[in-house]
Amino acid sequence: MPNSDTSLARSSRRRRRLGIYVLAILALLLVIGAAVFRNAGRWLVREDPLGKADVIAVLSGNLPFRAEGAAGIFKSGYAPAVWVSRPAGPQVELAALGIHFVGEEEYNREILVQQGVPDAAIRIFPDTIVNTQDEVEEVSREMRRDGKHTVIIVTSPQHTRRVKALWRKLVGDDPRVIVRAAWGDPFDADHWWRTTADVLAVVRESMGLLNVWAGLPVRPHLQ
Fold first, then answer.
1. Distance CA 223, CA 217 (A)
2. Contact predicate 83/139, CB 8 Å
3. Partner of 53 for a Cys bridge, out of 33, 124, 152, 206, CB 3.0 to 4.6 A?
4. pLDDT tens digits for 188-218?
5. Which fold has domain 55-213?
6. 139 and 99 in contact (C-beta within 8 Å)?
7. Nearest to 60, CA basis, from 159, 202, 150, 177
8. Which alpha helices (H) appear in 82-131, and where do they start and end?
């Protein structure tokens, strides 16, 4: 029978080994967590190669960068038309106060024209949208109605991965989407933790992706 001193020594060695293993695992998790944290902004950016399309679609938000990006693609000859979504706004509330509300879609139209897109090539959707899910459904619905097969969607860099995930979830491969980032957007993918705007963007996009992967249990707010 081993004496008590030997048993205590073996037990102490096992505890030390266990402690070393735990510390090594914690250190590894810390390194992985730091890498994931640092690269979260860059991971959200997922563009497709540019190619010919039937139409370019400008998603709402982040004036003027998305419209500017769409104008550049239009002038490069990748598509003959630009579609603009109409985000929901306080039209009714302001009208009750006798105030005319100019929606974001009109500013996007003006930006496109100012950047060299003919007004005749611009189409603003008649129905209002609440979020990106609405926009994807609207763009794909209009494409199918008009017999179009490929769209270039222009959005902010940090929004590109979620747009692709939503399109794959809601639409599939037909019609086909090419997602492009508006690189004039000030989002800093490599140092996103330095400003509140970029932090909020990363959190919002990450939560949006979780919602897509979970099957879209969180629905758009009804107006």
1. 18
2. yes
3. 152
4. 999 999 999 999 999 999 999 999 999 999 8
5. Rossmann fold (3.40.50)
6. no
7. 159
8. 91-96, 104-114
pTM comes to 0.85
Residue 195, phi then psi, degrees to nearest 5: -130, 150
Give the position of tokens 């639409």: 171
> Could you report how far apart the first and last alpha carbons of the chain are, in Å?
79
Closest to 153 (Cα-Cα) out of 75, 62, 82: 82
Contact assessment for residue 41 and residue 189, using Cβ atoms and an 8 Å cutoff: yes
Q: Are 178 and 139 in contact (CB under 8 A)?
A: no
In contact, 201 and 187? CB cutoff 8 Å: yes
Residues 6+ apart with CB under 8 A from 190: 41, 42
Res 222 pLDDT > 60: no
Type of residue numbered 190? D
Is residue 198 a contact partner of residue 190, using CB atoms and an 8 Å limit? no
| Radius of gyration for the alpha carbons in the chain, expressed in angstroms and rounded | 25
36 confidence band (pLDDT: 50, 70, 90) = confident
Cα 20 to chain centroid distance, Å, stands at 41
Q: What tokens does 59 get?
A: 């998603």
Position 149: which residue type? H
- The H or E element spanning position 176 is strand 176-181
Nearest-angstrom CA–CA distance, 5 and 8: 5
Q: Are 155 and 179 in contact (CB under 8 A)?
A: yes
Written as one letter, the residue type at 167 is W
